[in-house]
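Input record (Table S2, row 128):
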Amino acid sequence: MTDPLVKAARAAQARAYAPYSRFRVGAALESESGEVYVGCNVENASYGLTICAERAAVCAAVAAGAQRFRRAVVVSDADPPAAPCGACRQVLSEFGRDFRVDAVGPRGTATWTMAELLPAAFGREQLS
Ligand code: THU
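Output record (tetrahydrodeoxyuridine complex):
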């Protein structure tokens, strides 16, 4: 049986808008209350304005009222599976250091915790 979070991320990947790179990414976040929020990459003719799938999913979750995550899944066609980029790690890290992040590719899955993906993160502690 397919993991529901992977299924949600795959469905989002299919909706990616990536006419420039042709690299389609889907992300799904499971909140602590069990809700699922998805995002996909949305590219732009002004390339630097591109939004990654993970950050799109974070925005969808926060807009819907979820701020604590249990798990994140990122699906792409990269082999080995593509981990979130540095900017997305920083944004995900704002909402939890302990949750699991799975990167799914065509031939397997790589798993980390958020803290493993972004050790020594900059966070709210630095601002107080
Ligand atoms: N991309 C993501 O959506 N997430 C990442 O973590 C890395 C890169 C997207 C951005 C761009 O549309 C395409 O992948 C190629 O960089």
